[in-house]
Amino acid sequence: MSESAVAAAVAVAAEYGLCADDPVVLSDSWHVLVHLRPLPLVARVSSGRPYPDGPPEEDVIRELAVASHAARAGAPVVPPSDLLPAGPHRRGGHVIAFWQYVKPSGEVDPAAAGLGLRAVHDALADYPVELLERDHEERRKAASQPPFAAE
Questions:
Q1: Which residues share a beta bridge with 34?
Q2: Is residue 97 assigned to a domain?
Q3: In which domain, by residue range, is 18 found?
Q4: Which of 13, 40, 91, 137 has the smallest CB count inside 10 Å?
Q5: Element housing 17 (H / E)
Q6: Structural domain count of the chain
Q7: Interval 36-66: pLDDT, tens
């Protein structure tokens, strides 16, 4: 999926006048993360297939909104991109969201990570929409179950 994911991300960025002539894949798993170098921009590219193979579009919208809210409140999160509309975008069978690139800073200090997580929780305390409690695995299991139990 990496080649088509990179091509889709580069094409959407180009539609907004952004030239990413040296893209590099940072991660290739359920999502492909592509640093659209030389831009300070990362594309998270998912399958365009319906859940559970690909993300529901409303999940991507919610994720971008939550991250934006936390970033505005000063929480240590990677914010959505401000170079182009963050998304979701659909291209070549993929769902794409754009995020600001944050250069890795080395080893993670567990105490600082804990404080950062606390700051994220504090920043989301006044988020105006109820946050989901179920994780991907629970949703995946729920999606594979019939809509009613056999009696």
A1: 25, 43
A2: yes
A3: 2-143
A4: 137
A5: none
A6: 1
A7: 999 999 999 986 565 556 677 788 889 999 9
